[in-house]
Amino acid sequence: MRPRTWVLALAAVFAVLQLANVTARDTPDSANYVSYALALGGADQREAAARTVDWACAGRASAAARAQRVNVLHFHAPSPAGRVFAECREGELRRVERRLAAGQTDGHIVPFVGPRLRAIFEVRPGYPVFLLPFVTVFGVTWGVWLASVLVTAVGGALAFLVLRTLSVPVPLALTGQALYYVLPVGTTAMRPMTEGLMLALTLTAVWGCALALTGRARAGAALVAGALLALFAVKHAQALFLGGCLAGAGAAVALGRRRRGRAPGRGVVAIAAAGCAAAVGTLLLARLLRYPSEAESMQDLLTDHYTHPDRVRPWPEFLHLEWDFWVEWLRRQLLAPLFLAALAAGVWGVRRRPAFGIFLLAAAGTGFLTQAGHPDITIGGDRLIVLAWLLPVVGVPLLLEPLVDRVIPVPVQGSVDEVSGGPVGDSLDDVSGRGAAGGSLDDVSGGRPPEAQSMR
Question: Which of 268, 255, 228, 267 is nearest to 366 (CA)?
């Protein structure tokens, strides 16, 4: 089969497996995004509240029924689904009605939470806009599920494209796609929150970096800029982090090349310029639009979503919490070091593509920045730091590349298209023959001769 067929087959298998959990993936934040999408579709506050609550409570009822069926003491008891749904629906709608009666009717989001917390979600229209056509056509339950499956499947396909652009063999590029689905990346992307879109857009920017470094500076810079622009609408903090990190990575690569007596390359300059423009533009536009500031986010954290009085001296308390958080985080990671081992494998793998590796490290590092901005140990599942998992998703296939080099014979004749099966990384010239435009073979492929790349 052609590579694109394998990509679609992997995505289809992943989608079928997700039918095991159509509901009960929501978090407390999910209701804000779903009600936002319904409001954009024309629903009033009470209609949006009822449809969102029905969806969320159906998930809780389903989870309660499944838990009861495997309870060692009560597995033979009647299903609690009906009772759980009724209690959940009554309680949630009562709280919403109380806030609506108090005049909290502004904005697009149903007042499940207080005004200050809602303001944080109001400035993230990207994910609700993405949800809108799905919930409009398929309803809330299947619409949210389909949107989650699609954005996660696309993220895996982007991992494949990144690796193929770097001339990684098709089996290893498919391995990267599979890793995206089976690691916590896929689980987190399936949740009805912003993370799925953030991961896909961040990978789009990484793909742009790979294109720019393989001689397609204009296309790569356009992808990076477009991804950063879309990230501003999804979650502007990620646009700021990613833009700043890519600009720093570009400066590091350019400085390294200068020290070796070489020009930085158009691709590196284009990525750095796009990242710098995104970081500065995000700061200015957020201030112009009066988005909640970092001080407001800090008060949200330290007051448990504004359920306690504001802290008078938030910075010293935040830094104290930050130190304690990372000490405890590291202790827990050492107890189950899969994440640390995966990161180490990813770092070792990207050494085969030094210049690209720096940009990938920068993108994955935004996961640590996001976690550092929210040092809350009660948020489970590595949701905030999930972007760091992109490092092993791309780096592990690169680490395995020498093994495939020994197994797959190098073809004597035939075009690269016949071997690679598609236009991604179409020709050897796209990978190694455009050093003046976007970097040399050493920077992209770690110094392998052209003969070793003809099989790609």
Answer: 228
